[in-house]
User: What shape does this take?
Amino acid sequence: MQQQLKVFKIIHLALVVGLIVAYFILGNLSDLSQLKLPTMDSENMVYLIIPIAAFVVSNLLFKMLISKIDNNLSLKEKVIPYQSASIVRYAIIEGSAFIILIMAPDFIIFGVLLIVYLALLMPTEYRIKRDLKHLD
Assistant: This one.
């Protein structure tokens, strides 16, 4: 389990660091004035919906994929489909952050919030066991 968890953490870390680097380079985050909340109107409301939809869809899809894992499998066997479900979740969040960065750089603060959320989803043994309801 520890070896699988180590690989899983490396994948997660690579995704988070890649997003952070992209935001610093493409989003010019070295200038902290970029992190101001933009003015909202009816035309740009869709850019507020993107991070909300990413959060909701990623969690729903993750839970759906987790629920399909066979309970008769051992914890070690459950980790692989769990990892796949998590990567799907990460991909939705990462894709949404890139969409915001490229299509609406004024809304970069919402992308930063998605990056923070993605970082908080770091895989741990406790989280995996909790999500799989396999606590001993």
